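Per your request, structure below.
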């Protein structure tokens, strides 16, 4: 994915917000009820946080951190669109599909978090 280095305090702050958002919203909670719409609820929250980061960012609208935000939105939007309105508990086949979609998001999130951690100087936090 390349490298990222914040150019100023605003970009560092946006990167930190994205890093924090990606740390908690990818997988369903341990008490998940088996319903896909519940499984992607954290992803819906992640999309809202990305929209807020983009909407309140005071710097260059082409800043690298916003490209990272956009990549998260792109990757997260597909599973959200597929599963958000599905309220039927999953069977084994649908569970495998849902898991695959969430695993793709988790993989991208881990890549973006690692990039942000290195560029933002938070690598030691990423290792914990």
């Amino acid at each position: 994915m390349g490298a990222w280095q914040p150019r100023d305090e605003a970009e560092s702050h946006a990167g930190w917000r994205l890093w924090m958002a990606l740390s908690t919203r990818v997988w369903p909670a341990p008490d998940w009820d088996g319903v896909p719409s519940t499984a992607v609820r954290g992803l819906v929250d992640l999309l809202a946080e990305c929209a807020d980061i983009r909407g309140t960012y005071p710097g260059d609208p082409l800043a690298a951190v916003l490209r990272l935000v956009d990549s998260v939105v792109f990757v997260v939007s597909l599973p959200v669109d597929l599963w958000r309105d599905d309220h039927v508990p999953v069977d084994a086949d649908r569970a495998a599909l849902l898991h695959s979609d969430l695993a793709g998001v988790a993989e991208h999130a881990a890549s973006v978090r690692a990039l942000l951690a290195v560029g933002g100087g938070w690598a030691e936090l990423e290792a914990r």
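The chain has six helices and no strands.

Regards,
D.
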